[in-house]
Amino acid sequence: MPAPHPVAKSCVRPGTTSPCPTLNKPKTTMKTPSYRSLARVATPLALTLTLLLPASLRAIDPDLPFSSGSTGADGPLTFREIAPGRNSHALAYDAARQEVVLFGGYNGNSMGDTWVLSGNNWVRRLPATSPVDRWGHRMVFDAARGEIVLFGGTRNTGRLNDTWVWNGTTWTQKTPASSPSPRENFCFAYDAARQRVVLFGGANGGQETWLWDGVNWTAANPANRPQATDRSAMAYDPVRQEIVMFGNYGQTWIWNGTDWTQRGSFNVPSAKSFPTLVQDGASNTILMFSGSNQQETWRWDGANWTSLTPPNSPSPRQYHAMVWANNLQRGVMFGGDIPGVDNYAADTWFWNGTDWSWLSGKVQNFNAKARPNGIWNFTSINIPAGVTVRFGIETNLALPPHPLARHRRRRHQRHDRCQRPVRRQRPSARPTRPRWPRRLRRRPRRGPLRFLRFLRGSTGQGSRRRRPRHRAANQPQPARRQARRVQRELWERVPATAARRIRRRRRRLEQ
To answer: Which residue, 220, 238, 267, 472, shows the most beta carbons closer than 10 Å to its own?
Structure first.
């Protein structure tokens, strides 16, 4: 028998006899890196690579720590400027300078800023002098004097009754000999046929009618007067040369320059609080929208109201403002209070005579799928303050499930000592019977004496005896008697040994 091959001492580990040291190495397992460890390594690495890149290749957006790689073939991408959201503000169309002017409002605080709609963007103006912050005021363009007239409103210190005019550059306060009492939420319109600004009602205004001639306020004394209101609106009808008022009483009133007259209609809108009425230059009628958080558009033709059903419409709201812009041949509506959605809206809508169209708002969209490959090359992306952009990219990719999702589901399942985990059951027309736990169910008797189960009245598994019927629905049974009968039936189903065990357990709990 040949001698065994000698084994070098250097190749043998202490306590082992294997000639190959690699076989004696302890087994090593690779640990999968966690999400947190990857994040700790990836973040500094990305920042280091960003600093090493040349300045010309770095992204303009600081939120993107990589180069966009854009060639700039599509030029800059800009989104529309908006005015901050608000309600209870005032709008007026400046026909002399062909622009829509916005002033004041409320967004949790009283506001006193001036904005102008230039094209499709709201641009803020910083005049040398300006009225104090307020809300609930009104503005209208005085065509005879070529300026916008602002009156009244309220602020944190109380109601106001000051008069201001806007000449396109700055605000100027007027000092009339007499003025209406301080008030808010009144009706305001310009009577072009008589070249007077007409004011009616308002909070703390009663049934008063006042006229502004550019220098002073004069109280009118009509024979008939509408009910006092601070939730109505009115607009001038140039075709019939009269002012139309409608509001929270559901009544239509006409001002002919000297007196008020109530006008009936076959189709009358429901009473609305804080609606908006403007002249519709496209159809030479009066347009009314919303009020009382209703999504309705109505038209007054001088004799009757007609409900319109445009394909698109703004959300139901109130405390908004609307004017007719001759340069755009559109009705312009801005802001308001949209209950449950946005109390200080900043969306701008256009009315073209037949339909509403959205112009801008706090959330603006960009359709990135307009191109099949979804690749755009912009030199820059300019997003105004207060605007959130949603890029319309849809994808079917989903994140992988979390490794602990299975255990999280089990954690929230309800477990009972005698009940299996709750599982979803297929809906069926007939509800399933409540079943006893498996360990307490009555087993059917087997063998030659299995027919004795009918004598004991068992209704357990395997029994053919039907459950006793309850009385008809029209014959009510006392609740206590019914509860005892049901309890007795349940005890009959429980074997005697299980029943004794349950009684002992109850006695121990009661002690």
So the answer is: 220
